[in-house]
């Protein structure tokens, strides 16, 4: 005759393993979210700040000359793009 706990032990071990892997997976997802969130904050500038077009140069997105009538976007790294070109670039990512 087998002991009744012999049937319960595998169930308890299985449930414990499931809980362990669920918690571990949640922590990994949280860490990944925080890493990508920090990265996104670092590289995506504040789109509220507009920049006057420089007198010479071209937008490297559309390859057109800067025009004083068109607002430009200066990103944190110092590059300057047409505001609309930069918005389209972010949307296509």
From TrEMBL:
Keywords linked to the UniProt accession: Membrane, Metal-binding, Transmembrane, Transmembrane helix, Zinc, Zinc-finger
Cited SUPFAM superfamilies: RING/U-box
Coiled coil start-end: none
Superkingdom, natural source: Eukaryota
Residues in RING-type domain copies: 59-86
Sample GO molecular function, one term: zinc ion binding
Keyword Zinc: yes
Keyword Ribonucleoprotein in record: no
Residue intervals passing through the bilayer: 6-23
Protein name (record): CSON005058 protein
